[in-house]
Automatic annotation (TrEMBL):
<feature type="signal peptide">
    <location>
        <begin position="1"/>
        <end position="22"/>
    </location>
</feature>
<dbReference type="InterPro" id="IPR051010">
    <property type="entry name" value="BCAA_transport"/>
</dbReference>
<keyword id="KW-0813">Transport</keyword>
<dbReference type="GO" id="GO:0006865">
    <property type="term" value="P:amino acid transport"/>
</dbReference>
<comment type="similarity">
    <text>Belongs to the leucine-binding protein family.</text>
</comment>
<dbReference type="Pfam" id="PF13458">
    <property type="entry name" value="Peripla_BP_6"/>
</dbReference>
<dbReference type="InterPro" id="IPR028082">
    <property type="entry name" value="Peripla_BP_I"/>
</dbReference>
<feature type="compositionally biased region" description="Low complexity">
    <location>
        <begin position="163"/>
        <end position="181"/>
    </location>
</feature>
<keyword id="KW-0029">Amino-acid transport</keyword>
<feature type="region of interest" description="Disordered">
    <location>
        <begin position="163"/>
        <end position="182"/>
    </location>
</feature>
<dbReference type="InterPro" id="IPR028081">
    <property type="entry name" value="Leu-bd"/>
</dbReference>
<feature type="domain" description="Leucine-binding protein">
    <location>
        <begin position="27"/>
        <end position="378"/>
    </location>
</feature>
<protein>
    <submittedName>
        <fullName>Amino acid ABC transporter substrate-binding protein</fullName>
    </submittedName>
</protein>
<keyword id="KW-0732">Signal</keyword>
Length: 402
């Protein structure tokens, strides 16, 4: 098998608007989020996940601590999709607003920017949208991440490999090509795919770096047409996914397998059903998975509740944001105290079944219990095809017409 990897720089933060002040019997969580700027799309998805979980917890009676029931509240500010603004606002939340518990921003870049502040003030943070491995290599004690790290995103694609004939007598059947950009998330996705490809003895035929704005992939795609790799991998957040499927179709690239990140938040199946047909997509979570927990019930129960409240299909960014709130509530209830260090230690000891999947943190704060899944867009639906234990059906390879 041959493959190509493509990705770009995309720093997604989180939303921002202020909530009510702390009151008696209320625990206020803090967050910076991108309601404006280039990351506003997933800022809204993150905010909706946080808000839905807080509503659900409060409707079920809140968090019971020491014989009292505490409601949850969220104070958040718009970080405008920039690290500088995010760090300024985190300081404000902790120093001026007196917030003792933080939820993370959307993106590895913004999470990386605020981590030194979180550590300096010793404020526990449960984050749902910073996946870069480097976040967990600095010895930080106050970060806990519910999602899988970005090097895991497209690794399930290798379980789908099929023997494919060489495209010409002079070209081997098992080689790969890639195009990547220089941001932590993209480099981790690339590294994970590259590690597995090297282990399987698959050669690389292209290694491109895409422009940060990712509005034109034609140079890379023309190389794909000439060298005919069997798999094209693109990690460029929403814009990269949209550009990739549009230009693959427009240029008639003829690639047998395409694997992308951020398909659901880009709404590929809804917006580009023809061009995106039979594309493979990395997912942190999917509504068809058999995960269950006390707060929302099953994965499908959460998806139906989200659709009912917000009027659109729940992307995994919203699901993992919701579960971050739930993890905090669970830790507070087990600690039976709102002391910062006791809640931090309870977070470290988390072993929780949820609609999103199992949550269990290692010493670095990574969730080591939940796998990634891979879907394929079939008849405008995201259908889980890997790993095998979660697959709803067999994958279609090669893409029809390619």
């Amino acid at each position: 098998m041959r493959w190509l990897f493509a990705s770009t720089v995309t720093f997604l933060a989180v939303f921002g608007v202020k909530t009510a002040l702390c009151a008696e019997d209320v625990v206020t969580l803090g967050a910076t989020v991108s309601l404006t700027g280039k990351y506003a799309l997933n800022g809204v998805n993150t905010k909706n996940g946080y808000d839905l979980a807080i509503r659900q917890i409060n409707d079920k009676g809140g968090v019971k601590i020491g014989g009292k029931s505490y409601k949850l509240d969220l104070r958040y500010y718009d970080d405008e999709s920039t690290p500088a603004r995010s760090t300024e606002l985190v300081e404000r939340l902790i120093q001026q607003d007196g917030v003792n518990f933080m939820l993370g921003p959307y993106s590895s870049g913004l999470t990386k920017a605020i981590l030194p502040i979180i550590e300096r003030h010793k404020v526990p943070m449960v984050e749902a949208n910073g996946a870069a491995r480097e976040l967990f290599t600095k010895g930080y004690r106050y970060i806990f991440a519910v999602l899988s790290t970005s090097d895991q995103y497209l690794r399930p694609a290798w379980s789908l490999q099929r023997p494919m004939p060489a495209s010409s007598a002079s070209q081997p059947a098992r080689s790969r090509s890639r195009a990547t950009a220089n941001d932590p998330f993209a480099q981790d996705v690339r590294a994970g795919v590259l590690d597995d490809a090297m282990r399987l003895g698959i050669n690389c035929v292209i290694d491109d770096q895409l422009p940060p704005e990712l509005d034109d992939m034609s140079v890379t795609l023309n190389k794909v047409k000439a060298l005919k790799p069997d798999l094209l991998v693109v990690s460029g957040h929403e814009k990269g996914a949209l550009t990739a499927v549009k230009q693959i179709e427009a240029l008639r690239t003829g690639i047998p397998m395409v694997a992308l990140t951020h398909c659901d938040s880009a709404r590929l199946a809804e917006q580009l059903p023809k061009a995106a047909s039979h594309v493979f997509c990395a997912h942190q979570w999917h509504r068809s998975l058999g995960h269950k927990g006390k707060l929302f019930g099953s994965a499908d129960d959460f998806a139906r509740r989200f659709q009912e409240v917000y009027g659109y299909e729940a992307p995994y960014q919203s699901a993992q944001s919701a579960v971050a709130v739930y993890v905090f509530a669970d830790a507070m209830a087990r600690a039976q105290d709102l002391d910062i260090e006791k809640v931090r230690d309870a977070l470290a000891a988390t072993d929780l079944a949820t609609f999103y999947g199992p949550i269990k943190f290692d010493d670095t704060g990574k969730n080591v219990a939940k796998p990634m899944v891979l879907t394929q867009i079939i008849d405008r639906e995201y259908v889980v095809v890997a790993p095998e234990e979660w697959a709803v059906r067999d994958p279609v390879i090669p893409r029809p017409g390619h």
